[in-house]
Design a protein that fits this description.
By secondary structure, the protein is an alpha/beta fold. The chain has a single domain, classed as 3-Layer(aba) Sandwich (Rossmann fold). 45% of the residues lie in helices and 11% in strands. It contains 17 helices and nine strands. It has a four-stranded parallel β-sheet, with helices on both faces. Strands 1-2-3 form a three-stranded antiparallel β-sheet. Strands 8-9 form a two-stranded antiparallel ribbon. It is globular and about 55 Å long. Bound molecules: adenosine-3'-5'-diphosphate (A3P). Adenosine-3'-5'-diphosphate binds next to helix 3, helix 8 and helix 15. One of its GO terms (molecular function) is sulfotransferase activity. Belongs to the sulfotransferase 1 family. Its EC number is 2.8.2.-.
């Protein structure tokens, strides 16, 4: 569980290069360039990895797939699901709990990153439950994920807070680590975000797709909101554990296990761990763990967006979600 993995990035194939040339390409809200494939904007190497993951990943019924848009609380969800599913192996107050020494991204890997490093990774020896994360839309998930009846958990967040979180991310990560990060002013970045041109965007399209699937297949897909986790983490932890088929026993509930997990994975606790203050991860570039812990609040957009910006994005999202039963505000 080393936080920095030394990886070799595979050369892109000619077929993929041809596909890439044929796709619309734009400057995104934060990243540049982005390529538009089947309704979603990707960075080139991420699209290539997502396609490999879609073609080759073989899901098992015991797998757990965590799906999110970037900056919607992926790090938090990873820690919660890892803590819930490993609670018989590591009691939450265990001094050797992996989350005390490993960033959540080190215990739950992204499939896009696994398949970026190796198009045919051997994942067969990973013991169940295998927990993976992804930012791809439901339609890009491998057929085996859709048919295996494995558990999917989708976490969404208010797009205004996603934008603000992304904007800050783009400003704190050193450009030499992410050459594709660009310096554009917040107004221009926001305009692009409202058009959905952001990594894995539009985030509201992605949320809507997972929402519809969660209504259709509630036993397979659990749909969560960042704001609900913040409002009442204990009842959301119960929902997650029930969905995963490992509900908290009354003994656990009386013994405070739910509260212990909430505390272990709380923003304050994770942010202040040495590993998350000073450690580093290798995504497509080196990223310091501390960038995943900024404020962890609901409504920070109010400090950044003008009322007219907020109104504009609200209207875009409201229009898109109209009649679906889903709200993201
Ligand atoms: P902010 O930038 O608004 O603070 P992701 O993990 O998908 O990259 O999302 C990052 C966002 O989740 C950041 O939001 C980060 O601070 C917040 N976050 C990370 N860990 C959290 C936790 N344990 N509890 C609440 N929010 C958390």
């Amino acid at each position: 569980m080393d936080s920095v993995q030394d990886v070799q990035v595979l050369p892109e194939s000619n077929d993929f290069q041809e596909l890439l040339q044929s796709l619309p390409c734009e400057r995104g809200a934060i990243f540049h360039p982005l390529h538009f494939y089947k309704g979603i904007w990707y960075r080139a190497h991420v699209l290539e990895a997502a396609m490999a993951f879609q073609q080759h990943f073989q899901a098992r019924v015991t797998d757990i797939i965590l799906a999110t848009a970037p900056k919607s609380g992926t790090t938090w969800l990873k820690s919660l699901v890892f803590a819930i599913t490993h609670r018989s192996q590591y009691t939450v107050t265990d001094k050797s709990h992996p989350l005390l020494t490993t960033n959540p991204h080190g215990v739950v890997p992204f499939l896009e990153i696994i398949y970026r490093n190796n198009k045919f990774p051997d994942l067969t020896s990973t013991p169940p439950p295998r927990i993976y994360a992804t930012h791809v839309p439901y339609s890009m998930l491998p057929e085996s994920v859709k048919t295996s009846k494995c558990h999917i958990i989708y976490l969404c967040r208010n797009p205004k807070d996603i934008f603000v979180s992304m904007w800050h991310f783009g400003n704190v990560v050193p450009a030499e680590n992410f050459p594709s990060l660009q310096s554009i002013n917040i107004e221009e970045s926001f305009e692009r975000f409202c058009k959905g041109i952001e990594m894995f965007g539009p985030c509201w399209e992605q949320a809507l797709e997972y929402w519809k699937m969660s209504v259709e297949k509630p036993e397979e897909i659990l749909f969560l909101k960042f704001e609900d986790l913040k409002a009442d983490i204990n009842s959301q932890l119960k929902r997650i554990a029930e969905h995963l088929g490992c509900p908290f026993s009354s003994e656990e509930q009386n013994g405070g296990v739910i509260e212990d997990i909430a505390n272990l994975c709380s923003f304050e606790h994770l942010r202040n761990l040495e590993v998350n203050k000073t450690g580093k991860l290798f995504f497509s570039q080196v990223v310091e763990n501390n960038v995943f812990f900024r404020k962890g609040e609901v409504g920070d957009w109010m400090n950044i967006l003008t009322p007219s910006m907020a109104e504009k994005l609200d209207q875009v999202v409201k229009h898109k979600l109209h009649g679906s039963g889903l709200t993201l505000n």
